Amino acid sequence: MAGKNGACLIALALVLGACSARIPLNEASFPIQDLPVDHLVQTPVVYRFAPGFEKQNAQIACSLGINYTTDLGPSAEARLQQAVRSSFAHAQQQSAASHGYTLAFSLQMADEQVTVKPGMWDNRYTVDTTLKGTVQVLDAQGQPVQVVPITGLGSNTEAGSCGALKRAMMQASEKAVAQIGNDFVAKVANGHVLN
């Protein structure tokens, strides 16, 4: 009997360990060729991210109070860097611009919500991820020229146990991160904000 209890505790520990994790997003899910770049903007720009941008994440609790944490900030920052470099011919990342314009990125919301539909044998998890930020365009003197809202939304549904929730979070997050980069390109680069 003690052996069975020990085996159950080990199995429970493995399940708990598998369900308690940070979720890094797959950078291969954000290929450059997926960015809707119409043309290269020739206006020189410097770009920067607000302090704490890369530290933003989202958490969802699975069964037994165990949390999954998705690192949304670092992936959104990497995607936006990719978007700037792909759509601006003369873009560099530094703290201040002596000429040209500065693109100042901030992230106001990094959120994930889950809806659980219980089933007879497993649950059906639907995760909705929302990223909301702004790009503030500043002139060479640091004066605001325009503020452009950028958004990334993603949704995914998976059926199963705690691992299904993790998969749903990852795929919804990857969609949202990809979309926030696309939104920047569509509104700022293709939108002729600086040319």
How would you sum up this structure, described in words?
The N and C termini lie far apart (76 Å). The strands form 2 sheets. This protein has a 5-stranded mixed beta sheet. The radius of gyration is 21 Å and the shape is elongated. The protein has 195 residues and is α/β, with parallel strands linked by helices. Helix 2 packs parallel to helix 3. The chain has one domain: Double Stranded RNA Binding Domain (2-Layer Sandwich). It has helices at residues 2-19, 72-87, 162-189, and strands at residues 21-23, 45-49, 58-61, 67-70, 91-93, 101-118, 123-138, 144-160. Residues 1-21 form the signal peptide. Keywords: Signal.
Give a quick rundown of the structure.
The protein is of the alpha/beta class and 195 residues long. The chain has 3 helices and 8 strands; from the N terminus they run αββββαββββα.
| Helix and strand element order | HEEEEHEEEEH
SSE class: alpha/beta
The DSSP helix count reads: 3
CATH class: Alpha Beta
Count of the separate structural domains? 1
Terminus-to-terminus distance: 76 Å
